[in-house]
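INFO  loader      accepted 1 record
INFO  loader      residues=357
INFO  predictor   begin
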Amino acid sequence: MEAVRYHGPNEALTFETVPIPTEADLSPDEVIVRVEASALCHTELHFADGTLNLGVKPITLGHEAVGIITAVGSNIPPSRIGQRVINYYYVGCTNCRWCNRGDQQLCPNLKAEHGFISDGGLAGYIRTPSRNAVVIPDSLEFVDAAPIGCGVTTAVHSAKLGRVDSARDECVLVYGCNGVGFGLVQLLKNVYGIKNVGVVARSEAKRKMAIELGADFAIDGTDSSSVAAAVREKTGGEGVDVLFECVGTRDTLDSCVGWVGALGRRGRLVLVGYHQGEDHEFRCHPIPMIVYEQTVVGSVGATLDDLKEAVKYVGEGKIRTVVDSIISLNEFQTGLDKIKSCDCVGKIVCLPCHGRR
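INFO  predictor   done
INFO  writer      dumping tokens
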């Protein structure tokens, strides 16, 4: 089968032929999934430019894969063959306190992390534990389901960490709007019932899409130095109660905090996006945060339960994934170039040679 391969930081990603996993490769609790669609993520760019270097190479990238189970291990009922599934990409040790709590994404002894430290889904097939292969509704097309795997699940997880609460009549801001951001807007409006949700984005097309998906206001983020003042104007000088920062550059982070930053009193800043290097470190003086009693929390990945929730919300129509374009897997670099230039509205989904919509 063909796959997108990573060979180390600052090396070009390659499109190679690698062995197809077989039943002989399976442990008793694993399954093989024939990938029907896999979404690209900014994570692949982070691997290519050295932002992410987890010390494992070569591997197949990709952590947003959906497909059909074609083979099962000896402990798995044959009835699972043929099921349409989405893959959960963390495989915890199952023994630590984090795994016992259901927070596999925090496991310090991961057995696998598909597309990060073990082979992922930008390929024709993927081998995964049966419990990680979550059934998706028959009504959901593969290309629409693939972006759930990171874009929607990350939104579900980060919203919990942000402790959003419609009962407090809060104003929530999503800074940086594409895959995760579009998921957050819909989650906040349609699941949490937040009355006042805003977005910040440089792209007019993305701002329009966010409004179409339910956002109450959209701010042009082209000049990040003007964002905080614009947010304060929209909120009567108060700032927002919860801010999801999905960009992660020094300029965008700076606009969130401080005496007149976008974040208000007792505001919760949820860090989702990140960039490489000291130029993009998060730095702020503690006095405004102390006086305003603000909270900063990081959000990484999602739990297995978060994925199941995300599938449920999309299946119910409360969230719809936004797909910018559909390409063949061998065109992956074109897709990544489009992501790098921020020239896409929604996710780019790759189809393997056997992929079907």
